[in-house]
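User: Could you check the structure of this?
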Amino acid sequence: MSIRAALKAGAIFAALGVAGLAGFVPASRAAHPPKLAISEEASTAIAEMGKSLQADQFSFQVRTLRVYADPNGQPLHIAHAMKVTLRRPDRLRIDVTGDDGSTKLIYDGQTAVLFGVDSKKYASTAVPNTIQGMLETMMGRLHVDFPLADFLTDAPDKSILFGVNSGREVNTVTIDGVPCRHLLLAQPPDIDLELWVEKNDQALPRRLVATYRDLPGQPSFIAEMSDWDFSAHPSDADFAFQPPEGAVQIELKPPATAKAPATTKAPAKQKGGG
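Assistant: Sure, the predicted structure tokens are below.
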């Protein structure tokens, strides 16, 4: 599943009082993307981005805005801010705050914990001892969405390009004083992906917009990434979860299958995931 498909599916974890956390491409699928009609400039920029994001450790900040439908089908927007901290091969922490509360995902190399800060409910599950393996387990078996997880896989460039059949560089723009390449990628039959990466050797991602052309109003998911820090040295304690006083542990189960056409008409509301 690519980030674009996951954003449309939107699994919700009502028992936690939070939702999942944005999309992901399993390694077995990302390793064999379709042949691309993609320009040399766009291909080179995404490859450079992939190399940068394979670093041993880093952190970054994200602000997101996404569309969800109210009970009457009216499109509304929900905003989140998050900090992502990664240490390869087996540590990941994501702290999310938003219009609907706060959520944490903490992975220590053996166990992944989802914690609803406001509800004081948490769930934990045993997972493989790599970030890639953890993502595959959580996404594939438990249908958990992860925030912008295409950027966290073992091969971020292949994850971003999964399902894409064409791409080009539109122009150069300035984001927070940094020149960035504006890339346009098309994923048939109905998703357009815009990605802004810094116009330098690191090619760090600064903005992502996914537009769903087949949905009423053509809604978009928008993410603004900043404060990339490759000098961070997170300790094991940063990835350890200690339940606060009064917290209640619940079982983490796959969500019930949504009734059609609920997951096909509009991106579902995400309570904890960007």
